[in-house]
Amino acid sequence: MKDTHKHQGLRNQLVKTISAKGITDTQVLQAIGNIPRHLFMDSGFVDFAYQDKAFPIAAEQTISQPYTVAFQSELLKVKKGAKILEIGTGSGYQTAVLIEMGAKVHTIERQQELFRKTKSFILKLGYKPKSIIFGDGYKGLPSEAPFDGIIVTAGAPFVPSALLAQLKIGGRLVIPVGDEVQIMTLFIRTSEKDFEKHELGDFKFVPMLKEKN
Ligand code: SAH
Q1: Which DSSP helix (H) or strand (E) runs through 16?
Q2: Whether the CB of 137 sits within 6 Å of ligand 1
Q3: Model pTM greater than 0.85?
Q4: Which residues form the active site (predicted)?
């Protein structure tokens, strides 16, 4: 499938929609305006790709709603060249947004099927994360730590301490915390020991799969 003028037109509308909902970071809006979201979706849903909604992907997971992707990406305050860890590669859409914003992205997926499919897909599309890893997001990625930002794209039952530990001083963790409904939570590491915590409203994500021992 291709990316056409029609798709670009729909994307421009989507950018207007999410900016009307309060997203102001121009890097985020540009990324969403550039990325062919329809290519990240299963063929049955491509006609809806530019609606501001989540949709099913493989393995009972979802591609997050564009507004949610934008909201989380804005909270990360990505600078060019920033080192970012994403937990929950899923369709690869959020990964692509971060790469478009100039981040060096490491991304972890816990489901083998999605990991394989998305890895080959996003590389083919020309998005090159620093690494795409099949593993358990609760553990983070100690070999690459510390990070400027960590983004969790599944509902976390609690805040994994490994993720807080892998932030640089000044680094930001964006994580939806909760079971049925999640509170979008931002942690900013202000010193070796201290974190600022901000709670930024309710969202609904698929649950983060259990920790592996
Ligand atoms: N960022 C994705 C959102 C996908 S939904 C996108 O833009 O499409 C959340 C993803 O998190 C799913 O793919 C799910 O398999 C993955 N996931 C759930 N628990 C995980 C864990 N413990 N470690 C890593 N990935 C996990």
Answers
A1: helix 5-20
A2: yes
A3: yes
A4: 64
| Residue tagged active-site, from 43, 64, 131, 191 | 64
Catalytic-residue membership of 19: no
DSSP state, residue 48? G
d(CA 179, CA 201): 14
Residue 88 alpha carbon, nearest atom of ligand 1: 11
| Mode of pairing for the β-strands spanning 83-87 and 131-134 | unpaired
- Domains of the chain, by residue range, sit at 54-203
Nearest CA to ligand 1 atom 4: 90
pLDDT tens digits for the chain (213 residues)?
788 899 999 999 999 999 999 999 999 999 999 999 999 988 777 778 999 999 988 888 889 999 999 999 999 999 999 999 999 999 999 999 999 999 999 999 999 999 999 999 999 999 999 999 999 999 999 999 999 999 999 999 999 999 999 999 999 999 999 999 999 999 999 999 999 999 999 999 999 998 876
Pairing of strands 55-56, 83-87: unpaired
Query: Which residue type occupies 16?
Result: K
Coil, helix or strand at residue 31: helix
